[in-house]
């Protein structure tokens, strides 16, 4: 009986504290081909309005906040609000004006197209 009272008291003291949203790095897959670099970031539960993508001077910053709407008293909580953050170095050869992103099933797909000068090309040898 006293154990149950201790658990209840402990939970009440935790909820009274000011809890900061934890920050985690999303899992990421990166693919590259001749045309672009494609980045997939796992951000479950994040709405597109809550995602920020910044590219500046060879630095790519991704962030997104998963907000949880709850009602009623919390009995047990393991899955709550979280902020996803990740920073990458990207080549200067990325055409920033053509970068686009899409969010589907909790996966952010970021297309980073290469500038024409950075794409591989075949050099034709002319006969003299």
UniProtKB/TrEMBL annotation:
SUPFAM superfamilies: HSP20-like chaperones
Gene3D superfamilies listed in its UniProt record: 2.60.40.790
Pfam families: HSP20
Highest taxon listed in the record's lineage: Bacteria
Signal sequence coordinates: none
Domain named SHSP: residues: 18-128
Family to which the UniProt record says this protein belongs: Belongs to the small heat shock protein (HSP20) family.
Protein name, as recorded: Molecular chaperone IbpA, HSP20 family
Source organism of this protein record: Desulfopila aestuarii DSM 18488
């Amino acid at each position: 009986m006293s154990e149950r009272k201790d658990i209840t008291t402990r939970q009440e003291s935790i909820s009274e504290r000011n809890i900061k949203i934890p920050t985690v790095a999303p899992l990421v897959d990166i693919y590259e081909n001749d045309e672009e670099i494609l980045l997939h970031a796992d951000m479950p539960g994040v709405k597109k309005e809550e995602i920020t993508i910044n590219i500046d001077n060879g630095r790519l910053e991704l962030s997104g906040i998963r907000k949880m709407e709850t009602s009623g008293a919390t009995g047990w909580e393991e899955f709550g609000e979280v902020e996803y953050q990740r920073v990458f170095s990207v080549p200067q050869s990325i055409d920033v004006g053509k970068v686009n992103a899409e969010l589907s099933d909790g996966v952010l797909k970021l297309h980073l197209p290469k500038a024409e000068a950075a794409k591989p090309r075949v050099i034709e040898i002319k006969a003299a």
